[in-house]
Each structure stands twice: as structure tokens, then as C-alpha cells.
Amino acid sequence: MNASPLLALSPLDGRYAAKVDPLRPLLSEFGLIHRRVQVEVEWFIALSEAGLAEFAPLPAAAVDALRALVSGFSETDAAAIKAIERTTNHDVKAVEYWLGERFRDQPELAGSLAFIHFACTSEDINNTSHALMLRAARDEVLLPVLDGVVGALAALADANADVPMLARTHGQTASPTTLGKEIANVVARLRNARQAIAAVRLPAKMNGAVGNYNAHLAAYPELDWPAFARRVVEERLGLAFNPYTIQIEPHDGIAELFDAFARANTILIDWSRDVWGYVSLGYFGQKTVAGEVGSSTMPHKVNPIDFENAEGNFGIANALLSHMSGKLPISRFQRDLTDSTVLRNMGVALGHTLLGYESLARGTAKLQVNRDAIDADLDAAWEVLAEPIQTVMRRYRVADAYEQLKALTRGRAITRESLHAFVEGLAIPEAERARLRELTPRGYVGCAAELARAAARGDTPNAA
């Protein structure tokens, strides 16, 4: 049967296949096999340079040929390894045998077949491979797309820094803000979350069957194997070395990374829901796209589907990321196999994360600010000025300031005139009464505009 996208069980391989293509060579089974080959090759080359009596240093041409197996690794190569696995029923051993087949054709390598996968357990290869896969997916695909989302929101925050908007704490009218400031809040949170994602150091180990270099020392007791393994992990693979493990690297770094991605996704779920609400209120319109249909029966509709899709994809991603970050650091005794099954779904979780980023970016590009709707809501909400009036009354020690404004405004329709009449009767300096009379809902935004512009630039206002 042909693998038609219409028959895909996962939408990542069907409906949304093209959107997650950048992750395929990195987080697929091909990506895992590719990284296994890379790790095996680097371990082999390092052994040749370790001064072992039975394994002389390789000629430069042989080293280049080995690394060419990695740089030129193809789907045909991966398929050949899978064919070997059908006999071995062991995925890592299949990589070892595939390499052995290629070494036999090269005289400078054929005599050293025994040093492929030397003293390694499968997890020495797998844990380093998973770390390499995740680092590449994070640095080459996910962070650049997230940076695009942050940049688009920062530009929107800056452009609308001075646009007054009614706030809605608990869904009710509240002290005004600006549209730009509300977007800037998201930008600031996302930048922190992005920094946390980028800062995670992915650890790896190369210490044998139970983490004690048992086989290594049995063969070469004179070699400082912990130092050797550290050099391979840190210098050749660019990962963080973990010296204390069981058979598997305990996956705390992967859990930390998945938690960091989930935190950013949660922030974006929060924002997606707010944008949905602002579209519903009419604060945002959406650019129409020729040929698109919003409703199968209501021709007028332009639905905020990009933000709904983003929310849904982030939710699926976070369910998987949460499960993996909670499960992966747990292994019975010196190891069990449950982590292997779970790790095969890294691409699913991060694929839905990527879909969420792309949906949010697409929706953000369609947003159009509707000043008329925003202004109309502000102009009908004079009750929000109860806060500044009672606060000024407190400054001048007017008794029961809060209670007086509560009695005036709660559950009542408030107008400019009714507020001004109240202000006229206050026992405060005339200059203060005049200042309060000049105040409008549109003008009562504090330093929201300055905060919005600072956040859009990436500044921290008044930071020490």
C-alpha cells in the first residue's frame, strides 16, 4: 500500500506534513540512526587516538572517509541499517554491523573492526544521539521560529504602545492599559521562556553497561576512561558530560528542556486565548484571504482559526512534553526500556509545538487593530476613574474615600457629568479637582506606553 498522506494516523505525517518538514531529518527515526552513526564514528576515531597498543592512529584520509559517512548519510543508508535490524532485532547493533560492512572495503580500517562500538552499551550511543537530535531541533528549527513569533509580537507591541484600551480583570471593566502594553507583557514572558530553552545544557554519558567503565577497564586498565569519555562527549560531540549514571543517562536534561518548551507553550496558550477574546470584542479585525471560507453556512464570518489551532497544538504538545518530562527521569534499578518507547515521540511533541508557533505567527500577521471599537468601550466606561479619584482623596485624607466611590459607582451607570459633580464636592485643593476633571478613561493609562516600548526593545525599565 502506498503511504498516502490521507492514510496517515498522525496529522504531522498527513494534513500538516509540509509544515513540520524541517524537523523530519532531525527527530525522525532517520535522524536517530544518523546520529548513532555519528557517535559510533567519533568514538572509533577517538579510540584510534588514545594510544592503545592494538589500535594505531588512523591516517587522515581514513578519518575523512569515516566522517564522510556521517556528512553524506542518506535515506538509502538508513534503509540498509533497518534491513540489518530485521535480522538482529537490535537497532544499535545494526548500526555497528553496517559500519563494519563499510570498513571491510578500506584496508586502513578493515583490521580494526573490533573497535567499532568498543566497550559501549547501546545507551552510550542512544543517549548521545538523542541529545544531538534535540540540540539540533532546538537550535536550527524551533528557536528561530519562536524568535520570529517574539519579533512579530514585539513589533505589534511597539506599534500600539500608545493605543489606550480598557482592561478587563475578571472579565469586567478595569483600569485602562494600552494595547501595546498587553502585547508587551507576552513578549517579556516569552523572552524569559526562550532564554530558559536555550540555556538547557543537554548531558550525555559514555560509561558502559552500568556506568562504571567495567568493560573498559577490563580491556585497558591503564587508561583514564572517565577523562577519555568526557573528552569525547564534550569536545567531539559538544554535549555536557554526566559522570554519574546507571546504564542510561537519567534524562534530567531532556526533562528540563521539555519543561522549558512547555512553559513557553503555556504562555502562548494564554496569549492565544486573549487574542481570541479581543477578536470577539472587535478590538482586532482579521485580514481576509481570497477564497477562504469562515463558515459553511454564514458567509460573513472570519473566524480566529489560527489562534484556535495554535491553542490546540500547544495543548497536545504540552500533554506529551509533560508526560515525557515526568516519566523519562524514572527507571527501575539500573535501567528499564520504558524510556526508549517514550523518546520515540520527541518529534511528535516538538512537531505540535512547531505547528503552534506557525499558526500563531500566521494569525498575528492577519491582525488589524480596530480603534473605533477600542475607543467606544473606553468612552462608555467612566466608572474606571473611581480608582484615581479615591486614591487622590486618600492622599488628602478624605474619610471613607473607597466607600464613597463604591457607593457612587457600583452597579450604576456612570457618566462624565456624574463623576465631575462628585469631584466638585470634594474637600481637596482646587488644583487637584481641576486635574481630576481633566482625566478621561483614554488618558488614564499610567506609564503603559513607556513600558510597552521598553519591552518591545528588550529593555528592563529602571533596572539596577
From TrEMBL:
It catalyses: (2S)-2-[5-amino-1-(5-phospho-beta-D-ribosyl)imidazole-4-carboxamido]succinate = 5-amino-1-(5-phospho-beta-D-ribosyl)imidazole-4-carboxamide + fumarate; N(6)-(1,2-dicarboxyethyl)-AMP = fumarate + AMP. The keyword Lyase applies. Pathway: Purine metabolism; IMP biosynthesis via de novo pathway; 5-amino-1-(5-phospho-D-ribosyl)imidazole-4-carboxamide from 5-amino-1-(5-phospho-D-ribosyl)imidazole-4-carboxylate: step 2/2; Purine metabolism; AMP biosynthesis via de novo pathway; AMP from IMP: step 2/2. Residues 14-312 form the Fumarate lyase N-terminal domain. GO terms for biological process: 'de novo' AMP biosynthetic process; 'de novo' IMP biosynthetic process. Residues 331-445 form the Adenylosuccinate lyase PurB C-terminal domain. Coiled coil: none annotated. Keywords: Lyase, Purine biosynthesis. GO terms for molecular function: N6-(1,2-dicarboxyethyl)AMP AMP-lyase (fumarate-forming) activity. It is an enzyme of class 4 (lyase). GO terms for cellular component: cytosol. Its EC number is 4.3.2.2. Catalyzes two reactions in de novo purine nucleotide biosynthesis. Catalyzes the breakdown of 5-aminoimidazole- (N-succinylocarboxamide) ribotide (SAICAR or 2-[5-amino-1-(5-phospho-beta-D-ribosyl)imidazole-4-carboxamido]succinate) to 5-aminoimidazole-4-carboxamide ribotide (AICAR or 5-amino-1-(5-phospho-beta-D-ribosyl)imidazole-4-carboxamide) and fumarate, and of adenylosuccinate (ADS or N(6)-(1,2-dicarboxyethyl)-AMP) to adenosine monophosphate (AMP) and fumarate. Belongs to the lyase 1 family. Adenylosuccinate lyase subfamily. This is Adenylosuccinate lyase. It comes from Piscinibacter koreensis.
